[in-house]
Task: structure prediction
Amino acid sequence: MDLENKKLRPSIKPNSKFENDGYTLEKAKDFKRAFRGLGTDEYRLIKLLSEHSNSQLQDISKKYSEEYNNDLTDDLKDELMGSFEDLCVSLLTPRRLWDAQYTKKALQNIGTNEVWLTEIICARTAEEMEDLKTAYAEIHETPLEYMIKSDTSGPNQKLMLGLLEGKRSQSNEVNEAEAEEDAKALYDNGEGTNSDKNEEVFINILVSKSWCQLRATFNQFEHIAEMTIERSLDNQFSGDICTAFKTIVAYARDPLTYWAERLHSTLCGKDEDDESFFRLLIQHSETDLDSIKDIYDEIYEKRLIEDIKSEFSGCVRKLLVRITDPTSSVRDN
Result:
């Protein structure tokens, strides 16, 4: 399967009515209406946040500030609480700043969230990586490279800094001779050596080769070593570096399957964690969540929305369902 050229489908798409005259002002007023009276109109908020792209929400938020001399995010925080507040604020936060905030959280909890950090940075192009580094420096006033050097060490630090350089090839062409050469290098510096393994060889290959080239390399490795690259990594490495290596390998194998498995694991599996699930769902809502849903349904023989409804309740459930399927009825979820 040509994974790089596969057409990806988001769940949340730009609202086609957005260019109409007066639309942003009307939606800004809709947000204000949600805050009026006793209590908050959560249904109105859910609809507004799930029927616009993040970029469109920024324009609505700007119009809200101009009209009411208040910050929309601050008003959301004043009106809401708990996980529902977290979700609403996340959807309203400019995506590049939201990425930077979660990168900071991953670094603060590197012992438990090394997967977060690897996921956030491993799939980015060089341009996207530069954007993340710029956003991080803007809001935290510290270069991301410095924080990674401060909060990680050893091979894991080298891997993260290597990913941060954003030097992965974007080519969709596979060089089989190069794949065989790289596979042999992985074997000779790991399974095939009686001396100390050389992590730098693994790091250099995993951070620089294109995804299709890595898949070819893993296939060649299996012929040489008579075992999968995953099993070999388990044999040779442990802890954070093993987890990070295997995250990259799993993503390279099939990104959509990787994300479907991660959604399931954080929603109702061995890594169950609401914040991780929220992050993944929002992260993919405007890129490929609709495509991931199809894979999820195939693997688990149960719709993602059904699992969301089983795990959550109230407004949190309604908003998560709408992120997953913006065409669904807010009141019926």
In short: The mean pLDDT is 92. The first helix runs from residue 23 to 35. The CA atoms of residues 126 and 228 lie 29 Å apart.
